[in-house]
Amino acid sequence: MTNEILNINDPKPPYVDPRHQLHVDNVELWNEVDGDFTHRLDYDLDENSIVFDVGGYIGDWAASIYSRYNCNVYIFEPVTSLCDQMKNRFKGNDKFKLFNIGLGNLTRDMYVATIGDESSFYLESANAQMARIINISEFIESHEIDEIDLLKLNIEGGEYEVIPRLIEAGLISRVKNVQVQFHYWIEDSEKMLAKIRQNLSRTHTLTYSFDYVWENWVRND
């Protein structure tokens, strides 16, 4: 074994994942255009529209999109405490439909790491609970949903299975808009993201993109 002396004057910087840096840069650009209150709420919706909020957290975005369009909002949140909080928040308003589940490509039970707005089935945490994931295509068919005007996905890695499942099942054509936050820290994320974009481009057109922050695809009607 050799002893290596750390040279504090070594100009070589520590390694930074370029995807992380891209995320940081795009968060800054996103904030400059106030994206949470412009891009994420600017849609052709009305009181008959159906919106899927997958990864509802505490319901702030759901409340904003409903307030603007009086649309029907299906909220999916696998963390029970967060789902219960939203049930109280939207109690008495039948425009909101709350589901204490996650959506994925297969129906199964998994542990979800409960880390606030970063809760995920793809992270480990001392605070974890068992949660139910439902195959998104089965949910759509069993609830007889013919059209989803806006599908919002912020599920900390689950997007890499939800969108491919919709494409494989031929149900992506029922979704007018896909608003999604892709996460860079998922293994093989670059490869999976490239494939998803390639397949989505057959039925949808990209309307805005801030990589690893938010992007939106609208159906080619």
Element layout with pairings:
Elements: H1 18-32, E1 50-54, H2 60-69, E2 72-76, H3 80-89, E3 96-99, E4 102-104, E5 108-113, E6 128-135, H4 136-142, E7 150-153, H5 159-168, E8 177-180, H6 189-200, E9 204-210, E10 214-219
Parallel strand pairs: 1-2, 1-7, 2-3, 4-6, 7-8
Antiparallel strand pairs: 5-6, 8-10, 9-10
What's the total helix number?
6
In total, how many domains does the architecture comprise? 1
Secondary structure category: alpha/beta
Which outline best applies?
Answer: globular
Quote the CATH topology. Answer: Rossmann fold
CATH class, anyone? Alpha Beta
C-alpha Rg (nearest Å): 19 Å
CATH architecture: 3-Layer(aba) Sandwich
Note the run of SSEs as H and E. Answer: HEHEHEEEEHEHEHEE
Low-confidence stretches: 1-12
CATH homologous superfamily assignment: Vaccinia Virus protein VP39
Tell me what you see in this structure.
- The protein is of the alpha/beta class and about 220 residues long.
- It has a single domain (about 20-220), classed as 3-Layer(aba) Sandwich (Rossmann fold).
- The protein has helices at about 20-30, 60-70, 80-90, 135-140, 160-170, 190-200; strands spanning about 50-55, 70-75, 95-100, 100-105, 110-115, 130-135, 150-155, 175-180, 205-210, 215-220.
- The strands form two sheets. Strands 3-2-1-7-8-10-9 form a seven-stranded mixed β-sheet.
- A hairpin with a 3-residue loop joins strand 9 (about 205-210) and strand 10 (about 215-220).
- The chain is globular, with a radius of gyration of 19 Å.
- The N and C termini lie far apart (about 65 Å).
Briefly say what this structure is.
The protein is 29% helix and 24% strand. With 221 residues, it is an alpha/beta fold. The protein has a single domain, classed as Vaccinia Virus protein VP39 (Rossmann fold, 3-Layer(aba) Sandwich), CATH 3.40.50.
